[in-house]
């Protein structure tokens, strides 16, 4: 199943395998329109996410105005990382690029809530489709609140098949 580049869709660029598994778990939500989301191969580091975005995806986003992208990174307890990554996003694309991730690293979240990465992704998707903050409100995820709200308002109309 491939995405239609001429319809609203979102690409997910994960930093590492743990983030990729979380994204894949997110896609398992039954309320999700799977043809509107694509998880890309992991970048192998948060700086590589930024580099791949700027070198490979920024230009295609200009070609496809309905394309959005979520950059999934580990914040590694670095309070300046979000600002740094946001500064690398070109002004003309900032409304379609979202930066999300675990405050430390996904392994810490997995230990904290005792769920595998895929189950974490499923729970996060369920929170989005049901407008709840159970897992998104966790200490290691709460910092995503503003970015998450911005993303949900952009992608929910086409990403979730809600009655």
List key phrases describing it.
globular; 4 strands; 44% helix
Strand and helix map with partners:
Blueprint: E1 9-14, H1 17-27, E2 37-39, H2 46-63, E3 67-72, H3 81-87, E4 97-100, H4 106-113, H5 117-129, H6 145-159
Parallel strand pairs: 1-2, 1-3, 3-4
Please tell me about this protein's structure.
The protein is built from six helices and four strands; from the N terminus they run βαβαβαβααα. The protein is an alpha/beta fold and 163 residues long. The protein has a four-stranded parallel β-sheet with strand order 2-1-3-4, sandwiched between helices. α1 packs across α5. The mean pLDDT is 94.
In percent terms, what proportion of residues is strand? 5-15%
What are the segments in which pLDDT stays under 50 over at least 5 consecutive residues? none
Mean pLDDT across the residues is 94
DSSP helical segment count = 6
Adjacency order of strands in the biggest sheet: 2-1-3-4
Question: Which overall shape is indicated by the principal axes computed on the Cα atoms?
Answer: globular
| H and E order | EHEHEHEHHH
Largest sheet: 4 strands, parallel
Task: Tally the beta strands.
Answer: 4
| Percent of residues in helices | 40-55%
Distance between the termini: 23 Å
Round the Cα radius of gyration to an integer and report it: 15 Å
Structural class: alpha/beta
